[in-house]
């Protein structure tokens, strides 16, 4: 049985963490898996299989997996140390800071494969570090980095991150479109880059969708979104667009699960366009899936996305998807026929949504769910050294 180490920042609710939580049960009986968490916290910890060994970073490195608020809760020293590293990162960039931290940690053991399950962020952002730790601190025959972003449009697209990725034996992109976008930037890694699709826990999602009854507005189009409230997710752009759609006579309710830095801006726009009764911010939900079941359509209005987990989750619950044209939208939504892909500009979104909502009851969508069997085979090929493409 091959020994593999997978490294991630934490197990808080997020797309990368959810993808990892879905992958672990699929591989835990096939490999001797060690999960190295920079910060061993998060709501998804309880989903880690019992036969996966969890390793944690030392107190100096652990802050890489913490937010400022989490560091503050840990005490003055932790908050001060993280704050110092954040300042150093802004001045000297991640090359210096992550390089320094990666030499402060020495995980025990020798592995057949070591995986950084996340890519680095912007060079002045204290986010990431798993790549450097895998490269500099872990002893392994093969070293792999996963890419969960549209690298061509990613804030972390910089010379240092590209040079770091070139040190890996393999790059695993989470969709064919993510792979194509990455290779546009780094074509020299063509022979080392493969696709390993995300896994989904369909039974869990279906069970959770029945945990409680989410509200549904009768006689209206029930729209749902699950997203971090940040600028790139496009929630704010939708408020004036939906104001125009309301003025055109379309009756709808849009419920949004998630929180983030753009919340107050979004609330202000909701008030400005007098959409308080139609656009409802739910905050962070431990279990948003009943809202999927209660909705008529999932709206994903992002400016940039890679291969969002929410596409597959909606497909499992037979919820049609209206999404802007981001990296994997055509591959994951348009081609399977499980929704509609709209051009990624505000005028086109308004035009297409107005038409889609006006003729909503006449629309037909296919029902296709993600296939874990193929995704696990791709992962096996990655570990075993076979070409998965």
TrEMBL record:
Keyword flag Metal-binding: no
SUPFAM superfamilies assigned: UDP-Glycosyltransferase/glycogen phosphorylase
Matching Pfam families: Glycos_transf_1
Annotated protein name in UniProt: Glycosyl transferase
Any one Gene Ontology molecular-function term assigned to this protein's record: glycosyltransferase activity
Tree of life domain: Bacteria
Residue ranges annotated for the Glycosyl transferase family domain, each copy included: 217-359
Key words, A-Z: Transferase
């Amino acid at each position: 049985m091959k020994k593999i180490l997978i490294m991630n920042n934490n197990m808080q609710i997020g797309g990368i963490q959810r993808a990892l939580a879905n992958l672990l049960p699929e591989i835990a009986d096939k490999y001797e898996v060690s999960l190295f968490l920079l910060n061993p916290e998060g709501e998804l910890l309880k989903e880690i299989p019992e036969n996966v060994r969890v390793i944690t970073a030392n107190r100096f490195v652990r802050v890489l997996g913490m937010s400022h608020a989490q560091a503050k809760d840990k005490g003055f020293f932790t908050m001060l140390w993280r704050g110092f590293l954040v300042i150093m990162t802004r001045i000297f960039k991640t090359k210096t800071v992550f390089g320094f931290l990666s030499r402060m940690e020495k995980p025990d053991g020798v592995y057949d494969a070591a995986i950084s399950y996340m890519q680095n962020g912007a060079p002045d952002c204290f986010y990431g570090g798993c790549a450097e730790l895998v490269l500099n601190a872990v002893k392994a025959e093969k070293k792999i980095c996963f890419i969960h972003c549209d690298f061509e449009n990613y804030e972390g697209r910089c010379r240092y991150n590209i040079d770091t990725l070139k040190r890996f034996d393999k790059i695993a992109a989470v969709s064919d479109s993510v792979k194509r976008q990455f290779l546009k930037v780094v074509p020299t890694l063509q022979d080392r880059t493969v696709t390993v699709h995300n896994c989904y826990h369909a039974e869990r999602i279906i069970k959770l969708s029945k945990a409680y009854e989410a509200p549904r507005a009768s006689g209206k189009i029930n729209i749902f979104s699950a997203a971090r409230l940040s600028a790139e997710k496009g929630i704010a752009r939708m408020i004036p667009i939906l104001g125009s759609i309301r003025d055109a006579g379309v009756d709808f309710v849009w419920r949004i699960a998630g929180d983030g830095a753009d919340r107050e801006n979004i609330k202000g726009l909701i008030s400005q366009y007098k959409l308080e009764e139609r656009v409802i911010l739910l905050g962070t939900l431990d279990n948003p899936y009943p809202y999927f079941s209660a909705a008529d359509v999932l709206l994903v209005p992002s400016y940039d996305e890679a291969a969002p987990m929410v596409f597959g989750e909606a497909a499992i619950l037979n919820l049609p998807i209206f999404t802007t044209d981001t990296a994997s939208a055509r591959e994951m939504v348009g081609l399977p026929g499980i929704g509609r892909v709209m051009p990624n500009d505000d005028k086109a979104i308004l035009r297409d949504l107005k038409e889609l909502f006006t003729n909503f009851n006449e629309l037909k969508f296919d029902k296709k769910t993600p296939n874990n069997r193929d995704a696990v085979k791709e992962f096996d090929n990655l570990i075993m050294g076979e070409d998965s493409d």
